[in-house]
Amino acid sequence: MRLEYDVAAGDFTRAGFASSSIKKALKQLGVSPAVVKRVVIAVYEAEVNIVAHANGGRITADIEPDGINVVLADTGPGIPDVEKAMQKGFSTASKEVREMGFGAGMGLPNIKENADSLRIETEVGKGTTLYIYIKF
Amino acid sequence: MTVREIAEKLNLRVFSGAEGLDREVSGGYVSDLLSDVMGFAKDGSVWVTLQTHKNVMAIATLKELAAVIIVKGFEPEDDAKEVSDEEGIPILGSGEQTFELAGRIYNLLNH
Fold first, then answer.
1. If one looks up domain B3-110 in CATH, what number appears?
2. What does each of the 136 residues of chain A score in pLDDT, given as a tens digit?
3. pLDDT per residue over B70-104, tens digit each?
4. What are the residues whose beta carbons fall under 8 Å from the beta carbon of B89, sequence distance 6 or more?
5. Distance between CA B66 and CA B16 in Å, rounded?
6. What domain range is A12 assigned to?
7. Is the ipTM of this complex over 0.85?
8. A64, B61, B62, B89: most buried, per Cβ within 10 A?
9. Where are the domains of chain B?
10. Which residues of A touch B (CB under 8 A)?
11. pLDDT band (50, 70, 90) for residue B57
12. Which residue from A20, A100, A101 is facing B62, i.e. has the nearest CB?
């Protein structure tokens, strides 16, 4: 089962739409609540990162019998130093975004802690793609 | 204890989501950082915060929180109240600041 969503840059009013929809699908399929919680955290954080940092992107979730693959591809600034971006507390979010309570430098760490695997492909000036896998 | 009991005992204002007042409260979480709540709040908790925008409700919904309590007399934005009504997750308000309010909730839940 494949679910796809477009994510618009800067549109925080819709942030969480894709994660919410994926959550509903997983619940309907009877995936265990503990796993659904981890998927929700990882996908929400990655979705918000596209809204906050990129020029827009696309989320593709493939739900398979034994797990979920989520690919989040954006066009945007890319991440110059992935290792630094993975550190807790490091953020490049704008002042406005921080005032909303985002940009605490917890997004990527939250994704890493909740995913069974996380791969990041990024090119400065072009964009970033996250590959998240969580097994059921 | 239900959201309604907490609201009544602490004189909280109910801004929206009244349909969810009978939700059972299992604990509380205090934070104004959305990713902190996303990563660490437990379902069934009341979330005490000074954030007032719609994303608070996106998180409350995704995390299946019992209610959101906004401190210091701040009021939720209209689109946040809409989500609260749709999802039946109440937004409550207090004139108190976080420290005092969280202490009162802690006492209610632990006595």
1. 3.40.1390.20
2. 999 999 999 999 999 999 999 999 999 999 999 999 999 999 999 999 999 999 999 999 999 999 999 999 999 999 999 999 999 999 999 999 999 999 999 999 999 999 999 999 999 999 999 999 999 9
3. 999 999 999 999 999 999 999 999 999 999 999 99
4. B17, B20, B23, B57, B60, B61, B65, B66, B67, B68
5. 13
6. 2-135
7. yes
8. B89
9. 3-110
10. 12-13, 15-16, 19-20, 23, 37, 40-41, 44-45, 48, 100-102, 104, 106-107, 110, 113-114
11. very high
12. A20
End-to-end CA distance of chain A: 15
- The number of beta carbons lying within 10 Å of the beta carbon of residue B111 is 5
Residue pair A94/A68 in contact by the 8 Å Cβ criterion: no
Query: In terms of CA atoms, which chain A residue is nearest residue B52?
Result: A100
Q: Is A117 helix (H, G, I), strand (E, B) or coil?
A: strand
CATH of the domain at A101: 3.30.565.10
Query: Tell me, what's the pLDDT at B111?
Result: 80
Contact of B92 with B71, CB cutoff 8 Å: no
Cα separation, A68 vs A52, whole angstroms: 24
Residues listed for chain A: 136
**Could you tell me if A80 and A86 are in contact, meaning their C-beta atoms sit under 8 angstroms apart?**
no
> What phi and psi, each to the nearest 5 degrees, are found at residue A79?
-115, 110
Could you give the number of structural domains in chain A?
A: 1
Output the six-digit token pair for B80.
Answer: 């946040």
Residue of A nearest to B49 (CA): A101
